[in-house]
Amino acid sequence: MSASKVKMRERKLKNQPVSVQYLSSSTQHSGSSGAVGDAGPSDTHTSAEHAKTPQQPGGWVRGHQKDGGGYTREMPSCITAVAFAQARAAEVSAMLKAVTKTTGSCHVFGALPKHMRRRAMSHNTKRLPCRLRDVANRMREKSLQSGSKKKEQAKNKSRKARRRHGNLLLEFNRRQRKNIWLETHIWHAKRFHMVKKWGYCLGDRPTYKCYRPCYRAMSSHCLLQDLSYYCCIELQGEEDKLLLALSQLTSKETGPTFAAISSLSGQRQGSLVVYRAGEYPSQPLGPVTFLWRPRAQGSGHRHLWIWAHPTMKQDLLPELQVVCQCSEAVYPLLLPVGIPAGTTHELQPKPENSSEVEQVTGTKRKRSSEDASVPPAKKILGDGTRSPTTPVTWKSSSTGIVINDLTMEIVRYRLIGPQSHAVLADILEAATECDEKSRAHPSSLWWPEHCRDENKMNLHKQQAEVYQTLKGVSYSGELPPGTVLGLTVDDPRLTLPSKKVKALASVKPAEDVDEEKRRELMLRGVPEHCCQSHLWEKSVRDNVTDHKISEQQLNRMRSEVLVPGSRLTPTPPQGRVPILLVHQPGKQVGREMSSWGAGWDLLLPKGWGMAFWVPLVYRGVRIGGLHMSLKHSQNKGAPHFPHDYPDCPAGVRFQEEQEGEFLDKFKRRPPAKRTNYIKHGCLAPFRCPWQQLAEEWELILGEGEKRRGESQAQNTAPSDTVMEEPMTSQRDVAKPRSRAAVLRPVTSRGQRACRTAEMPPLDRSGVARFIAAHEMSLVWVRLSLLSKGKPEVHAMVCVPTAEDLQLLGKGPGSSGPQEPPHKDHLRSRTKHKKKAKTSLPSKMDSSEPATSEDLEPSSDSTLGLWPDPLPSVTSHCSRVTLGWVTQGDFSLSAGCGEALGFISVAGLLDTLAKQSMEHRGVVLLRNPASLHYRFAKVNIEV
C-alpha cells in the first residue's frame, strides 16, 4: 500500500474504535491449536499487532494492492463472542457520539428544516423555536467569551462618527507615524498612485493617462508640483562666521559658493554641490539650493535657508552641526499629559472642560453643552513622525550660530511652464491695507499691527509696484535666473472662480505698467530691499497659521453676501499671507531649448497649503508627481537627485534599493520567462559598477602607454601614426585648450551638427595631460539616437569599431551591428548539479560520500545573472564598454530616443582621439535585454 493511501486510511479511522482483526491464513494455521472461543493473551497481542501495522495483507484495506492482493476472501473459522460483542458495542457508541456532537462550525438553526431557516435567526435568538433558544444562547456566550480574549473592537463603528472632524484628524495623525503626509495628501490620494518614499507618502503619477498632457503643460502652459517634502535648514548668526563655517563644505572650483555676491545680497537663489568638511573633491553629499535673507540696516546678523532632498538630510545636518560647532541641542517644551506622543497638534489655549485632546480613536465623542456651539480647536498637521521631545534647534556658545530644522514648516509649490507667470498673476493679489478702525485698537493678528508701522507699509507698497510690473512680463524665462520677490497677498480663496478657467497671458501689454521699469526688472531683477518678506519671521508664520480662516467660516461669510459669487469686502484682517516667489531658470546649458522648463517656486507658511492649491488647480494647471519630476530633469538634460549621483551617499543607497527592486521583480517571473542576461552579454543589468569601470580604463590606458613606450624604444625614428594614440601624459594638471575641440555640438536630434566654425584638431598633449589628471573620473553626457529606438535604464555605452562606422556611412537610418550570443556556463553547471542531486540516492546506496556541491548549486547564483565577483566589464562583449545609462526614454522634445548617463573620461578621450572628424562623438548603445547596437551621438552640454 502506498504511503498516501496509508495516511488517508489513518485519517479516516482516527476516531473509530478498534474492531475485530481477521487473521491471515498463515496466522490461523499457526494458532489453530487454541480452543475455539478462547480469548487468551495470544489473540489480544495479535490483534494489537494488526492494529499497529495496517499495511499487512490481513484485515480491511482500501484499494487495489501492488502485490496482487485485495480484500480477504477466506472467512475465519471461529470468532470470540465476547470480543465481537464489545467491538460492535464500541462502534454503536462511537456512531451515536458522532451524530449528537456539534462542532464549532455548526449552528443551531442547522437542525431546522430548510424552509424554516432565516438569516435573522443567526443574529436574534428570539426568532428561533423555544426548544433551540437555550442552546443558541449558550453558543453565543461561548463566542463572546472567546472574542473577549482578542483585541477589543472599537465602540465607534458608524460612519457618521468616524467622519467627525476631530476623529478624522486623530486617525490621520495615527496613520502618519511611519510616513509623513503633505498638506495636499488627501487631494493626491484620490487622484494619484501613492508611494512611500524617504519617510513620506507621495504621489507618483496620476491614475488617469496624462503623460503627454503633462509634457504639453510644461512646454506651453503650466505644471504644478508639491515639493513640501524637501527639507529646509535655517542658519542664524553673524555673516562672517557663517561664511567661514560654510566655506569648509564647498569649493570655488565648482562654481559660485555661499559667498556669491548676487546670492549673498538676497536677490537671487543659489545652487551648489555640498561636500563633507574639508574633503573636496572626494566625498560629495549632493546638490542644495540656498537663499539668504536680505540684510537689515545696521545689523550683521543674517538668516540662511538651505533646501535639500530628504535623503540627503541625514548626511547634511551632522556636517552643518560640525562646521558651525552647534552641539548644544535646545529641547522643546514638553506637551501636556493628555496629548499622545504620536500626534503633532499645535498647543492651543483650551477650556478646562475640553476633552478633545484626550479623545481616543474608537470611542464615542460626547460634547458638553458649553462647547456645543463652539467649533473644536483647530489642529495643525506638521511632521507627523517627529516626537514632541525631539530637538529641532541647535546652538553654539562659541560662534553664536543657531541651526533650526524647518522641515514641514514651510510649504513649497513649483510651477513649471511659460504660463506659470500668468497663473500666479491671476491668483495673487497684493494685500489691501486695514481700515482705520482696525488700526486704532490693539489686535492679536499680525497684519493690523504691521499696518501701524509706516516704514513697513512703504516697503509693502514698493513690493506691490514691483509685482504689478512683473505682471507685464510675458514669459518667466525673460527674468534673471533665481530672482526672489517678497510679498504679502490676500487669501486666494476670496477670489476663487465658480468653475475652472485656464489662465493665459494677456496679448496686449498692461496699460498701467511702465515700460522702463519692466526693462529694468528684466535686466537687473528685483531690488534688494523688495526681496524682504515676513515669511522669515517665526512669530509671523505661527500667527498666520493659527488664525487662518476655516472653510466653514469662509462659507458662512459667502452665504451672507448679497450678490452670490462676489468677493468678500472688506477683506478679513486674518486673510493676509506673507509669501516668497523664487524664480526657477529652467534649462541653462547647451545651445537648444534655452530656458525650457522655467517657472516659479511659491513658498508659504504651513497650514495654507490647500488654501493656495485649490485656486491654482482652478486656473487650469496640470498636476505632476514624482514621475514628472524625473521627466522634467530628462528634458532639461540635467541630473536628477538621487538617481544620477552615484558618488553621493544618498545615490549609493538609491542604487542599492533600485537593484533590490529590479532583482525581486526578476525573480518573481518563472525561470523560463526571464531574460537570460548572461546570453545577452550583460554583466550588470540592475546596477552600474562605476568603480570597476574607472579602474579598468586606467589599466587599459596604462598598458597602451607601456606598449607605445616599448615600440618607441625599438624604433629610432618616431612614426607619424603614433599620433593616433594618446601621447604619454605628464603628471601636471592641465585642461583642454577648448571644450569645443572635444565634441562638435549637435542638435537635440543628434542627426546634424550645429552651425559653428570649423573644428580644430584635437590637442593631443592637452588631452594626454587631462587624462593623467582625471583618468578615474566620469563625465555626464547626453546621448541622442541617430535612428529609431528607446534607451532603457542601465543600457551600455560602447566604442564602435571601424566596421561599425562603415555601416553608419550607408545612411543616418542604417541599422547597427549585432552582439553575438554568449554561452551560459552557469546554466550548464546548474543542470549538472541537479543531475547529481537526482543521482544522490544511488551514490548513497553504493556507500560513496556526497559533497555539498553535489547536493545543490550555490545559493548566491540566480539563473540568467552573473554571480559576484564580475569579470571584466569593459572587454566582456565584442565592443569595449564606456559607461552606462541612468535615464533613458523617448524624448518628446527632441523627437527621438535620448539617454543620460556617465561614461569614463579616459575612455571617451581615448575614443575621440581614434575617431575621424566625420564620426567624432559617435558611440554604440545597447539595452540590457537586447543584442542590437544602435548608433548614438554624444553631447556634453556646458
Automatic annotation (TrEMBL):
Transmembrane segments: none annotated. Its main location: nucleus. Residues 24-33 have a biased composition (Low complexity). The keyword tRNA processing applies. It is found in: Nucleus. It holds the Pfam family POPLD. Residues 1-72, 139-163, 343-394, 705-758, 808-866 are annotated as: Disordered. Residues 777-942 form the POP1 C-terminal domain. Residues 599-690 form the POPLD domain. InterPro entries: Pop1, POP1_C, Pop1_N, POPLD_dom. Keywords: Nucleus, tRNA processing. One of its GO terms (cellular component) is ribonuclease MRP complex. Residues 351-362 have a biased composition (Polar residues). This is Ribonucleases P/MRP protein subunit POP1. It comes from Takifugu flavidus. The lineage of its organism: Eukaryota, Metazoa, Chordata, Craniata, Vertebrata.
